[in-house]
Each structure stands twice: as C-alpha cells, then as structure tokens.
C-alpha cells in the first residue's frame, strides 16, 4: 500500500478545504484573491464616502451572501441589488435586509413571493409600466407590507424602462397613489454604457442619460414628488454618474472582482480595481506547441470573449469546448498537472456557473464561500 | 384580502411543482418535452439494436441521474460517459454502475477519488500519455480495484489523445502490463467533426479518423492486444462511425435533447431527433417593435449562438445580457407575462446552468428532475 494523496475527504463535493495549499485544490475551481478583493472594497468605500454618495452593491455579480455581508459591514454599502426574486429570497434567508430588485417583475405569483419577502426585509422594485401597478399593489396589500418602487426610465440602453419625462412622472404619480406601495425614486441605469471601449464614449452615454434623468426629476418636482433614490451606474461608468450631481445611489457590481472585458475597457490599472477573481485550471494533456487544461465552457461564460491566462507570458488561451481549454504553448513551458490562474472574460455569468468560491490568502485556502444564489434565475 | 395567486409554496427554491400547468411555471425554467425525449430515446435504441452496436450515452449533456437511468433501462444504453470525476461521483451516488470518464485525469488526488469509485461501479478512463500510467496504477492498487483503460488517440480534433499507430500501441502495452489496470480498447472520438456544417464534411472527417483507428487496431492486433471497446461518435457524426465497421460503442449525448446548433447542422428534421429541451421564458417589458424577456446569460450558454424562439413566427431573439433576453417583435404580438419556448444554442452548457428540469407532458408538469451533476467540473 502506498500513501494516499490528499484528496478532500469527506469533501467529495468540495473543490478544496480550508488550510489546503493552492496546489491541492481540485480544479477547475473559482478562486478569490482575498487581499485584492479587500483592496477593491476599500477603494469603493472611500470613493463613495468622500462624495457623500450611497453604494447599493449589485449582488448579481457574485451571488454570495458572505460577500454581500462584507460589502455592507466594511465596504460602505447601504444594501444590495438583486435581479430576480429567487436571488433576493436567497439573500434574505442569509440575513440581508435591504434589497432592490433592479429589474421588472410581472408574474403575479412572483409578486406574491416578493411581498412575502417584504415582511423580513426592506424591499424595493423597479417598475416601468402603469399596467404593473395593480398586481404589485394587490400583493403588498394582501401581505400587509409596503414595497418601495423606483420608476425605471429608458435612458439609452433600449432595454427595460418607461420613456423619461411625462410618462415616467405619470407612472410615479400612479405608484404614489397605490395602496401598499411607496414611490422612492428613479432607476436610471445605462447598462449599454458600461462596456463602451473608451472613456469618452462612456462619458457621452452617461451625459445623455443625465439629461433625460434631470428633466424627469424636474417634472417630478413640479408634481410634488420627492426622490429618495436616484439609482444607477455600473463599474464601467460610475465616475460619471458620481460627478453629475444627479445620481445618489451607485449600483456597481463587477468592481469587487473585475474581468478580462472590464480590464480591456478600463485599461490595465482597472480604474483602481484589481483582478480578484480567477478560475484555477490544471494542464491535463500536452502536444507539441500546445496543451489542454481542464477548464471549459462549464467553468467560463464566453459571451465577452475567452479567458485570459494570468502570470504566464507566452501562454495563450486559444479555444474552448465543453470540458477543455486549449492553450498555445509554443515554447513547451507547460507541464501536466501545472496550475494556471485564468481570468474570466465576464465575471457575472462565470460566477453563476460555480457552487463555491475558494477564498485564498497567500496561496492558502482561507475559507469556502457558497455561491448562495447560484442558479436563482426565477 | 384578495386571493393569493399560485406561488409554489413551500417550493421557494423550485421553479414549479408536479401538476402545475405550463403557465404556472416560474420562469425562466429548463423544461423537457417528455414525449419528444422518449421518441429520441426510442430512435437511438432502435438504431443501435438493429446494427448490433453498443450505446454508451454521454451524460455530460444532461448531467441527470434520472435521464441516465432511463437511457439504460429503456434507451438501449450499456452505461454512460462522464467527463469529470466529480460528475461520475454524482452518478455513482445515484446508482449508475457502468461509467467511462471519456477524458484525461492526471491529478493524483483525483485518481485516488476515481479508484475509490471503482469499488462501487465499473470505471473506465481514457489515457493519452505513458506518464499517466504509474499514478493511475498506484491508485488502483492502493484501493484494490481494477480500472479499465481506453487509450485515447488523436484522430483529427487536435485536443487530447496520443498519436495513433505505434505510440498508441506502445501505450496500450504499457497499460496492459500495469498492476490494477486493464486495457479495454481505444477512444477515437473526433469532437471537431460533430458541428461541421455539411454531411459531406462530417463524413470526410470521420473517414480520416477511421483510417488512423484501423491502422492502430492492426498494430494492436499484431501486438496481441484485443479491444473490447472502440469508442467514439457524437450526435453530429454517429451514422458514419456506425457504418464503418470499426467503432462498436457510440458515445452520443445531445441526441436526447437537440439544440439550435445541431438543428442548423443536421437540418430541420434533426436526423430523426426532435427538439425536446427548451428554456421557458416570460415577457417582462415591452416597447414599440420589441420586448424583453426574463431569460439571459444565466439561463443560456451562447457559445454556439443565441437561443431561437420556437412556435412564434415573426418573433426573433436578437440580443442577450446577464438577466434579459431581447426580442424583436415588429408587429407587437407579444404581451407582458406571455410564455415563450426558447431553443438553446448549445444544450450541454445550458443544462449545466440550471438546478432542475421541469418535465412536461401535455403542458402539465409531470416531475422535477434535479440536474444531478450540475457544476461538477472537478
């Protein structure tokens, strides 16, 4: 009998256990560089504190209750955003008590679930259609709760949102008059601005959003409606919203982790944010000039491009299939079982593929965090 | 108090419950048309039975123990393929007892986990490197088990696999001589042939794979090594492997579900296979000429293109973001809360995003099947 290597036991379902070295992690695994994460959290807390702005961190990026708690306790966040009712349910179960569903919810059964959540947490929801008000109001009344509403305006992304100006004002008046609802402000998120390739283009897109948001605010003021929240902004554009004097609640998400696409867009210094998220992969096969690693389409979302190899100049990620990553290795530097830190093209949908974050400090596993709301899309 | 709509309770974490109508499902949800699935299973069982071939269905497509069991009990499968040790662990826990890991596994800790699995199931593994034999043999000996080995040859896909011919023969001899291992045959899977756009191109790719596989078999025969298994073939190419007289064990996976990419490649009739897998989405916002549904990048893998709208001529899926699907609706046919059946671009990584299959028969929920090995990538 030879000695057994250190397979995680009884951790059959876990990629690692606390105390393990990086090279003992069963790959592929989603890993966080905790020191980099903490610096990103500090950077953003300082930014909003210095400007007297609120941060409502977007939890759709990470879907982690542990990280949401950290953002609220030490990262300067007043609460979080979620995108789906089931995501908010998972966060409320984990003890988060201030949640904006930064999205439209129309199914009466989902609205019923949302109203039940409002018994345990402050719940805010975006609305972009007068037709949405009766069902939402009925759900709130049925459960004896108040649901706060942000009127979502279409400010350039051509996604959800009512037309700014008079239609938005009229919707706000309707919300304010509905039993069980409170009008709490505007949602003015310009999603398509986040990944524009130049700072100038992002600034122009936010300037256009600012114009229509200001005009809507003016009309709301004339109608006697105050906005507690003017929400929006993402990791690609928030300096513009912050400088505008219009927005008061920033909804950035990706800043905690960063990804290859934001690094391309924001430049190598990431506007101050460091890459804190990686998929750790291992080489499992070699051939002249190339190698194959164990991280494929079930570890990465490739909607914004292939992963990028960190730390290893001369090695390129060149292709991907379901279970394999293709690496160009012209000088034959990679050995079988070698570990690679891979930067996801797009962090949000990549995190949603994994069940666990392996939290690393000085290349030791400090903790495993569940991806609390993984797969909570409904 | 108005009457509460039918939210699944206590099914907070479930998109549906058995007995519900299609319009009561909380969307987005991954749904199976059970009648179409059963016809696909029947088609393939008949195909292999008529030809005296074995089917080792690839479970990486669905990751469902329920469906694997159905494939073995009524679908003509002798066992299943998995791609990762953790995937096989999940299937063994669910009672599946004949599993080929159709991939390379090199980490000694993973090989230890694999050898432990071989106490409870027949386990086969692909090997493409003489350097892999000592660790695998040691793990088998340590746990007192026999692990069967298929020598994987590179037959055109430029992924894993040792060079065919003499290198493959020498590796087979080395496997056959190693304690705890049994040489059981060849893995000759031409992955890149599956999605070639024409039948002729797929046929040519498999003809090239056939040539090198035959030559390797000849050399193995000269060396006195018999192959119980010559494995390979996928949903795009299996008629060619089946007709060759070389392969005897087909490893098709996607045939159970189909997807938009295979429908493009194989033609509208899917070579006999019907679309049995959909993501059910709901419209949640409207604007002139377009609509937004609730199914985005966390519901679909878009590596092989956007989803396709079923049943609704004139409605096109035109864009996708994390939580939103963009629909062109030039004639304004879509209403808020309307349900849409969406065909995934690529079934395997799409299934891996979801926790549940909602099994439908005559538009009623018949069962919920867990995606047993979801996220089991290590």
From TrEMBL, chains A, B:
Membrane-spanning intervals of the chain: none
Domain D-serine dehydratase-like: 276-361
One GO BP annotation of this record: D-serine catabolic process
Gene Ontology molecular function: D-serine ammonia-lyase activity
Domain of life of the native organism: Bacteria
InterPro entries assigned to the protein according to its UniProt record, in alphabetical order: Ala_racemase_N, D-amino_acid_metab_enzyme, D-ser_dehydrat-like_dom, D-ser_dehydrat-like_sf, PLP-binding_barrel
Pfam families attached to this UniProt entry: Ala_racemase_N (PF01168), D-ser_dehydrat (PF14031)
UniProtKB keywords: Lyase
Keyword field contains Lyase: yes
Stored Gene3D superfamilies: Alanine racemase (3.20.20.10), D-serine dehydratase-like domain (2.40.37.20)
Recorded family membership: Belongs to the DSD1 family.
Protein name in UniProt: Alanine racemase
Organism, scientific name: Cereibacter changlensis JA139
């Amino acid at each position: 009998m030879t000695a057994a290597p250190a397979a995680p036991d009884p951790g059959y379902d876990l990629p690692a256990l606390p105390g393990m070295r990086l090279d003992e992690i069963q790959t592929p695994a989603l890993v966080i560089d905790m020191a980099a994460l903490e610096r990103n959290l500090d950077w953003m807390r300082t930014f909003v504190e210095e400007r007297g702005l609120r941060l409502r961190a977007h939890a759709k990026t990470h879907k982690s209750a542990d990280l949401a708690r950290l953002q609220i306790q030490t990262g300067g966040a007043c609460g979080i955003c979620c995108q789906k009712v089931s995501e908010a349910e998972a966060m409320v179960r984990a003890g988060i008590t201030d949640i904006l569903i930064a999205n439209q919810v129309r199914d009466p059964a989902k609205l019923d679930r949302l109203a039940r959540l409002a018994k345990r947490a402050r719940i805010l929801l975006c609305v972009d259609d007068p037709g949405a008000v009766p069902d939402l109001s009925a759900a709130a009344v049925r459960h004896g709760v108040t649901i706060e509403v942000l009127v979502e305006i279409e400010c350039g992304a051509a996604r959800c949102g009512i037309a700014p100006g008079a239609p938005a004002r009229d919707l706000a008046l309707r919300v304010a008059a509905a039993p069980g609802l409170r009008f709490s402000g505007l949602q003015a998120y310009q999603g398509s601005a986040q990944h524009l390739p130049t700072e100038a283009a992002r600034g122009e897109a936010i300037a256009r959003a600012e114009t229509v948001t200001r005009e809507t605010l003016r009309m709301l003021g004339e109608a006697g409606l105050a906005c507690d929240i003017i929400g929006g902004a993402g990791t690609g554009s928030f300096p513009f919203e912050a400088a505008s004097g219009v927005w008061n609640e920033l909804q950035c998400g990706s800043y905690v982790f960063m990804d290859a696409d934001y690094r391309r867009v924001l430049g190598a210094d990431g506007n101050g944010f460091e890459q804190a998220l990686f998929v750790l992969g291992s080489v499992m096969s070699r051939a002249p000039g190339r190698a194959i690693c164990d991280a494929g389409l079930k570890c990465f979302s490739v909607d914004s491009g292939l992963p990028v190899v960190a730390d290893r100049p001369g090695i390129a990620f060149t292709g991907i299939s379901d279970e394999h990553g293709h690496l160009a290795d012209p000088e034959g530097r990679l050995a079988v079982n070698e570990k690679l830190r891979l930067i996801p093209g797009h962090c949000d949908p990549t995190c949603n593929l994994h069940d666990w974050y392996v939290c690393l400090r000085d290349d030791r596993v400090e903790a495993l965090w569940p991806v609390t709301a993984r797969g909570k899309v409904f």
